[in-house]
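Lab notebook page, bench 4
Experiment: in silico fold of construct C2
Operator: M.H.
Input chain length: 115 residues
Purpose: comparison with the prior construct
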Amino acid sequence: VQLVESGGGSVQPGGSLKLSCQASGFTFSSYAMSWVRQAPGKDREWVAAINSGGTTTDYAESMKGRFTISRNNAKNTLYLQLNSLKTEDTAVYYCVTDAVSWWPARGQGTQVTVS
């Protein structure tokens, strides 16, 4: 299993970013996917999840209405649209798959900095 996250960067509060996660090594379309983030000195925090078909999504309360998770099974790619970003959203964002244990992370993550 390989998960390659991209799309992070530095933005001002209120800005937007779109994260991507390219998956390989498993049948992407068969598994639910999630995003998890970790800020310096803090515990990992679940952000959002999407079922295998992309028809059902779920979000952590503080992300509802600001973040949107989606997937393209034809491209084996997971996305996370981040809108109305806040300084407290600063973290490394990881995609994880129900195909394997979530940790240790299979990808390097992508850094989002809001300041």
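Observations: The chain has a mean pLDDT of 96. Strands lie at 2-6, 9-11, 17-24, 33-38, 45-50, 57-59, 67-72, 77-82, 91-97, 110-114.
Next step: discuss at group meeting.
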